[in-house]
Design a protein that fits this description.
Rossmann fold, 7-stranded mixed beta sheet, Arc Repressor Mutant, subunit A, two-stranded antiparallel sheet, DNA-binding, 9 strands, homodimer, binds nicotinamide-adenine-dinucleotide, 8 helices
DNA sequence: TTCACAATGTGATTTTTTTCACAAGACAAT
DNA sequence: ATTGTCTTGTGAAAAAAATCACATTGTGAA
C-alpha cells in the first residue's frame, strides 16, 4: 500500500529527525526535511501524509511526534534483530558499523563456514559455524539476514536461509538470488552503482 | 535520455552476459536475461531497444554483440579509474573487492587523513595523504570517487572532491551531501536498505 | 505444404512516482 | 484592519517506468 520509495524515505526522515532532535530542534518544515534527503517539500508532505500525520502551517511538523509515527510505521521502535552470514571483508565492516547501537539494527549473530572464524565474538555478535544457522534462526525467530558470502555460495546459502524461516535478505553477492516471491530480497550491487555513476557523471544525461 | 533504471540494468546484463560467454553460451533470449536480473522479458527487450541493438526471434540475441553494444553504451570497454577516500572498514573492503580486476572499475589510488594509513599499497592501490587528493585528481583527470569517510567529514570531503574536478561520488556516509546539481551523487545507505527490508519482509506488502 | 510454436519489436496501456499549483490559515508588519 | 508572507494538505497533472498484447517471422513437425 505505501509506495516503496516512500518507505525508503521514511527511514531517512527518521534518522535526520533524530539528529535534529538531539540538536534540540522541536519542529521542522517539509522543506527542511526535503533538504536532508534531496527531495522536494511536496514529496515530503506526501510521504508524511501516507503516514497519516499532520503538521501545522505555522510550526511545521513536531519532531517527536513524527519520530513516534515513523517508529510505529516500521512497528519497531525497538531494535530489530538480524543475522549476518559470511564474515569476510564487508561482513566484518558491517559488524563493526552496526555494533555502535546507533541504529535500529542489531546484528545478533553471524555465521561462517570457515572454522577459523567461528566461536569468536566480533563487535558484540557471536560467530557461529554455518551449520548452526537453521537452529538459531528458528529458535530466535529471526526474519532478516545480511548475506555476505562469495557469489559462488550465495544461492545455496540463500536457500538455507529461506528454509530456516528468513523472510528478507540483504544480498551483497553480485548474483540475483532465485527465491520464491514471498522472500523479499534487496540487492546491494556496488559495481552496478559505480558503473551507473560513471555513466551519469560523464555528462551523458541529467 | 536513457532511463536511469535501464542504465542500471544494462550494467547487470553485461555482467551476466560475460558469465554466459565464459560458459560458452553464444546467444540468449530475453527471458533468460530477465531471469538473471529479476525482470520481465518485455523489460529486457525494451532496455536492449534503448541500446539500439536487436536480436532474432530464432536465436535471440548474440552474446558477443550485446556485450559490445553495452561496452559502447558505457563507452568504457576499458577500465574506469576511480579513487577512494577513507581507508576504514568499508574502504578496505572495497579495495580488496576491486583489486581482482574482474570488473571495469579500477581504484587507482586511495586517500586518508590518518598518517598511519598512508604511503602503503593496499590491494594494488597506493594510499596517499588526503592533502594530495586535489593534485592527483586533476593530474590524472579522475572523474569518479568513492567516499568512505565518517559522516562528520563527508560534506567537507565532498566539497574538496568537487573542487578537484570530481563529477560523480558514490557516497557511503549516512548523510545527504549538498552539492551542485552537476555533480552526480549516488548514496549507498545500508541502514535504510535494512529498514526497508524489515518492513517489506514482515508481511506489510508485496 | 500447412500448422503450431516460440521469440522479437513495439504501440498502447497501466501503474507508479513525482511535481504542480492553489485554497486556507496564522501571523507579523504596516 | 489590511496586506504580504509563510506553510500545510491535497486534488490534478505530468513524468517515468513497467506491463500488456499482438503482428510478424523463421523453424520444424505432421
Ligand atoms: N568486499 C566488498 O567491498 C564487496 C563489494 C561488493 C560485493 N561484494 C560481495 O560480497 C560478498 C562478500 O565479499 P567479501 O569481500 O567480504 O568476501 P570474503 O571472501 O572476504 O568473505 C566471504 C566470507 O564468506 C565465508 N563463506 C564462504 N562460503 C560460505 C558459506 N557457504 N557459508 C557461510 N560462509 C561462507 C568465507 O569464509 C568468508 O569469511 C561477495 O559475494 C562479494 O562479491 C563485496
Ligand atoms: N562499515 C560499514 O559497514 C558501513 C556501513 C554503512 C555506512 N558506513 C559509512 O561509511 C563511512 C566509513 O565507514 P567505516 O566503517 O569504514 O569507518 P572507519 O572509521 O573505519 O573509516 C573511516 C576512515 O576515514 C578516514 N578519515 C577520517 N576523516 C577523514 C578525512 N577528512 N579525509 C580523509 N579520510 C578521513 C579515517 O582515517 C578512516 O580511515 C562512514 O561514514 C560510515 O557511516 C559504513
Amino acid at each position: 500500500m505505501t509506495p516503496e520509495k516512500t518507505v525508503a524515505r521514511l527511514s531517512l526522515y527518521r534518522r535526520f529527525l533524530k539528529l535534529a532532535k538531539d540538536e534540540g530542534t522541536s519542529n521542522v518544515y517539509s522543506h527542511q526535511l526535503a533538504d536532508m534527503v534531496r527531495g522536494t517539500s511536496a514529496q515530503v508532505r506526501r510521504d508524511l501524509m501516507a503516514l497519516g500525520c499532520s503538521g501545522s502551517p505555522q510550526k511545521g511538523y513536531d519532531v517527536n511526534e513524527l519520530i513516534k509515527h515513523i517508529d510505529e510505521f516500521f512497528n519497531t521502535s525497538e531494535v530489530v534483530d538480524v543475522i549476518l552470514v559470511g564474515i569476510g571483508n564487508i561482513g566484518r565492516a558491517l559488524l563493526s558499523y552496526f555494533k555502535s547501537g546507533k541504529s535500529h539494527i542489531n546484528i545478533v549473530a553471524s555465521f561462517d563456514s570457515d572454522r577459523q572464524k567461528v566461536d569468536r565474538v566480533i563487535n558484540n555478535s557471536k560467530c557461529y559455524y554455518i551449520e548452526e544457522l537453521s537452529k538459531f534462526v528458528s529458535e530466535n525467530n529471526i526474519k532478516t539476514a545480511i548475506l555476505c558470502v562469495p557469489a559462488s555460495e550465495a544461492q545455496q546459502t540463500a536457500d538455507v536461509l529461506m528454509h530456516s524461516g528468513i523472510k528478507g535478505i540483504l544480498n551483497f553477492a553480485p548474483v540475483r538470488l532465485k527465491l520464491p516471491a514471498n522472500i523479499f530480497v534487496e540487492d546491494v550491487d556496488i559495481t552496478m552503482n559505480i558503473e551507473k555513476l560513471v555513466y551519469f557523471s560523464s555528462g551523458k544525461r541529467k
